[in-house]
Input
Amino acid sequence: MREGTHSTPYRPLRRFSGMVLFEICVFAFLLTRLAFLQFGEEGRYDLLSRKNCIRFIPVLPRRGDILDRNGAVLAANTASYRLFIENPLKTRREEVLSLLQKELSLSEAATTKLRKESLKRAYLSLILVQDNLSWEQVSRLSLLQTHCSELHITMGYTRSYPYEEIFGSVTGYIGAPDAQEESSEPFHKHPDHRLGKAGLEKTFDETLQGAMGFRKVEVNATGSTVRQLEFSRAVQGSPLKTTLDAKLQAFAYHLLKPYKAAACVVIEVPSGAVRCLVSVPSYAPTALSNGESQAWKAALQDPMHPLLSRAIAGQYPPASVFKVVTMLAALENGLSPQEKVTCSGYWELGNHRFHCWKSVSGHGPLNLLEATCQSCDVYFFSLARRLGITPIASVARTLGLGEATGLLYGEKEGLVPSRAWKLLRRRQAWSLADTILVSIGQGPILVTPLQLAVLAAHIAHHGKRVHPTLVEAPLPLEEDLGFRPESIVYLQNALTEVCTTGTGRRARPAGALVAGKTGTAQVRRISEQDRVLGKLDTADRAWEERDHSLFLGYAPAGGDPSGTRYAISVVIEHGGKGGVTAATVARQLFEALLELPPQEQESYAPAL
Ligand SMILES: [Zn+2]
Output
């Protein structure tokens, strides 16, 4: 080898020089190319080369419909064509924008908004330009696609809610994923992707959403699709058939609408099927789901907070409907229902007087049944004094108060206080005065209309648990709540008497027995001066100072113990007396549920 090398001293050098030159040229070319690829226009070629010109385009699934128990559509999809652009290169931006402005007659403001969006977004990410394209626009834009590869026309779905505000607070609405939701799933970044944000839409989002599909395509250097490599079909979301009854919901909504703020719930016993869940005021979910800014502004600025679903998240002092709990605690703890207590209109603790609602003359001597029928506060003060808070709070929790039922997203748990709660939250020891107030549903105790209806359902189901549900489900195994059957029977009879001769008689429709309890929750204390002046009725006060009106109960009472019953709750904010306003609404609901002829309408809707 050495021999050979020496024998031809100049040729290898020449060959070497040629090769080096060639390699330098190639290397220089590669370097330049690399630099171009890495630092070229907005990394376009870098992106295309690194990703091997392959792109994934998400295919959105159609969201499942929401139906009532009879198949009436509560939420559906309307197909529409929409135009997206793939965010263009900086050098192409103005050209694409001016084309869009001309073709879609975009206003200057709309074009500016698009420009801002384009500047904010990454290259090639999709930006929604226009929804609900007309056929004419679709055909014209399709022709333009051949020399403007950034244009993408796709078919999407717009969510619509035929019953609008009647079911608004139950169906909820959908909206674009927030930053956290976006980061949890890459497909959530699609500008047309929507997630459930409230109500059924949020609670059952996984069922309704379906599964995203995708198109895997090869694109050329200019971003135009060369061919489709793979296609995975989107899986449509499952329809959600609920237990709700659209006819009943509409009826109940219109009953409550004359009041500024109210809620009612109907639960079928023993299945737990929720038949209606009404909140007033409500909102029209179609506009909110479509992100209409005016609708959002109106909903957010409304002082009556229509976005608050009062049936599940309105928390109220239960007032005298809570006497059901105190009564059961007394019966369970051996207090005799025959024992009489004399009501002289008030009860004194130290130098403080706790008044009965009939504070002027008092109720005189009564036993438990009479006290329940007349809703005498003094009698219940006497029970509370002997029981203490612990057994009362324990019965309240067993009946489902103080915790969410899990029915819908956004539900509130209310409050059942205890000695530990007061020490922790108010840094004060529990007092007898607290027990006295809680025994009649005032003081630090809060319930939701849903909890009240569930409580009524437990009693209607003879002390067995009723699980409220919005989707048909097999009946769960019977679970006894552990009360003595005699206590439950006494309670059922007492509540039937309340709606026959007592404060709840306005809730009884002609031709049926119903059981229930009324409540009138004070929102402003009645002062001694008001008492002296005889101003005990709050009807002539400003709306926000009037009492809340409540009712819970079930029908039919008595009769076949295995038959279907309907447990209901009605809460009317600042509606005045429970035995008048809420009881009358309850009667109208019972008439509808039991298909009884409606009695002559009495209107207790206050002047607003
Ligand atoms: Zn009394």
Remarks:
- The chain has three domains: 2-39, 55-241, 246-296+308-593.
- Residues 343, 356, 358, 362-363, 376-378 surround zinc ion (CB under 6 Å).
- DSSP finds 24 helices and 19 strands in the chain.
